[in-house]
Amino acid sequence: MFKKAIRIIKDFWATFSTPSKYFSLGFLTVGGFIGGVLFWGGFNTALEATNTETFCISCHEMRDNVYQEIQPTIHFTNRSGVRATCPDCHVPHDWTDKIARKMQASKEVWGTIFGTINTREKFFEHRLEMATREWRRFEANDSLECRNCHDEGAMDFTRQSARAAAAHERGLIEGDATCITCHKGIAHELPDMAGVEGWH
User: Fold this and answer.
1) Which of left, alpha, beta for 91 (phi over 0: left; psi -120 to 50: alpha)?
2) Helices marked H in 62-144
3) d(C-alpha 194, C-alpha 200), whole Å
4) Is the model's pTM score more than 0.85?
5) Nearest-CA neighbor of 135 among 90, 87, 74?
6) What residues have CB less than 8 Å from 149, skipping those under 6 apart?
């Protein structure tokens, strides 16, 4: 068995490394270019297909839990009709950051595949852990996804409540706070925070 595998690898390498007998360098170059374009197009199409709210709520764990929670919030229904979808808040818009986030998110699929969160009870059992991981990610990237839409440089503090304006100026402009520092639970219900250090 082992010898057969070695022979297959050697035969493949010999074929791969031998110059073409039938095709010109130009044909192989053009063929490689077209193959690359097709691969890249397919990759980006698949990437964008997995970057939609429809895809996100296609599993019942998201549809029946967090998607239900966002519906009464201002991020879902508001006077201007601008809706934030799952990828708006959980996937950066810049391509390199998006790819990094998608690689991280691929690990989260295991929770569905292995049934870690496949019931509402299990979902709530793991909710604090999942939320904490997401909050840490937002803190590490300076709430990059929030900044897809929100820009503190464009905020008109005079149109905010005195408390909000003071907090934004103190935390975002003068301090080292980021959006998620104060806005945990802005779009989804908070998990049970009992026993979490520093939470009041």
Assistant:
1) beta
2) 67-70, 86-90, 95-108, 110-113, 120-125, 127-140
3) 9
4) no
5) 90
6) 84, 88
SS3 199: coil
Q: How many CB atoms lie under 10 A from the CB of residue 123?
A: 19
For residue 153, the 8-state DSSP code is G
Q: For the chain, list the domains and their CATH numbers.
A: 27-152 (1.10.3820)
In angstroms, how far is CA 142 from the centroid of its own chain?
15
Tens of pLDDT, residue by residue over 100-121, are 888 888 877 777 788 888 888 9
CA distance 59 to 118: 9
Which residue in 47, 157, 143, 127 sits closest to 92, CA to CA? 143
196 token code pair: 């979490």
Residue 15 vs residues 11, 18, 43, 52, 189: alpha-carbon distances, Å: 6, 5, 27, 42, 58
What is the rounded CA–CA span in Å between residue 45 and residue 55?
13
Question: Residue type at 140?
Answer: A
Over the stretch 147-173, which tens digit does the pLDDT of each residue have? 888 888 888 888 999 998 888 888 877
Q: Are 84 and 76 in contact (CB under 8 A)?
A: yes
